[in-house]
Write a structure and sequence with these properties.
- This protein is an alpha+beta fold and 130 residues long.
- The protein has six helices and two strands.
- The longest helix has 20 residues, at 32-51.
- It starts with 5 loop residues before the first helix and ends with a strand.
């Protein structure tokens, strides 16, 4: 990691002392109208860019894959999924506990798809918990 050497750029008195100089922020637009025009232009560019890929992004079950962030991949190792599949193979009923505040967001669609394709004889119970 590279460290920021603040005192190499500004003296201590200018940065922290009683004679501190407040820097003016760099704005993207001078007034509200120009900011609104810039936002409209960037929205149009975004819609043109993503208009072609919208049909490809949706899955067969109607849900769109979210952009994966590195933080969400923690704990998603193959070893954990392997243990889950072992437990599913040895069970007759799979209970999926959902949060009552966001049941669609706490469902594991990957697991449901796996059960529909590979384990048609197994039953799944969706349990909504507060």
């Amino acid at each position: 990691q590279s460290r920021v050497h603040l005192l190499d750029r500004e003296s201590f008195e200018d940065a922290f002392g009683p004679k501190t100089k407040r820097k003016r922020p760099r704005l993207l637009a001078a007034d509200y109208d120009s900011l609104l025009m810039k936002a409209g232009g960037s929205q149009d560019a975004f819609e043109k860019k993503h208009a072609d890929g919208s049909a490809e992004a949706s899955e067969g079950d109607g849900f769109r894959d979210l952009v994966r962030h590195n933080m969400f991949e923690k704990g998603q190792s193959k070893r954990i999924w392997g243990e889950l599949y072992k437990v599913i193979d040895s069970s007759d009923v799979v209970v999926q506990v959902l949060d009552a505040r966001d049941p669609q967001g706490t469902r594991c669609y990957h697991l449901e798809r796996h059960l529909k394709e590979h384990c048609k004889h197994k039953n799944m119970v969706l349990l909504i918990n507060k």
